[in-house]
Design brief:
It contains three helices and seven strands. It is of the alpha+beta class and 129 residues long. Strands 1-2-3-4-5-7-6 form a seven-stranded mixed β-sheet, sandwiched between helices. Helix 1 runs antiparallel to helix 2. The model has no long low-confidence stretch (mean pLDDT 91).
Length: 129
């Protein structure tokens, strides 16, 4: 089960995971950007409450056109498996608890289109709740 963590307390474990994720799916952001966003409450990091090596970084955002809240998944990593498969239900539950209308994430990997329930908007994927 994922639990919210203080990025300062887990940074030594989180930074290598973020680096591994960014090697696999490059982004403009760097691990230090994740750290800064979490410390400044622009994003929140969650990690498993057991010894499983993984994390997600999310933020609650508002759609500027509709006013709907949505959960944006900025980073999702698991050392051995697909993070979406491992944490997908918990991410949906988190979004519902916060009254979000949908979940979004961006990826340069087009393969997410084949996973079902995800709709590609340019490089943005959205799952309505």
């Amino acid at each position: 089960m994922l639990e919210q963590v203080d990025v300062r307390a887990v940074w030594s474990a989180a930074e290598p995971m973020l680096e591994a994720l960014l090697e696999k799916t490059p982004q403009d952001s760097k691990p230090v950007d994740v750290y800064t966003a979490c410390v400044n409450s622009y994003a929140t990091m969650f990690m498993p409450d057991d010894d499983d090596e993984g994390l997600i970084v999310v933020s609650i955002r508002e759609n500027q056109f509709t006013g709907e809240s949505y959960l944006f998944v900025w980073m999702a990593y698991h050392k051995d498996k697909n993070a979406q498969e491992i944490y997908g239900q918990e991410i949906e539950d988190l979004a519902r608890r916060h009254g979000c209308a949908y979940i979004e994430f961006e990826s340069r990997r087009r393969g997410f289109e084949r996973r079902g329930d995800w709709e590609m908007l340019n490089t943005t994927f959205r799952k309505k709740l």
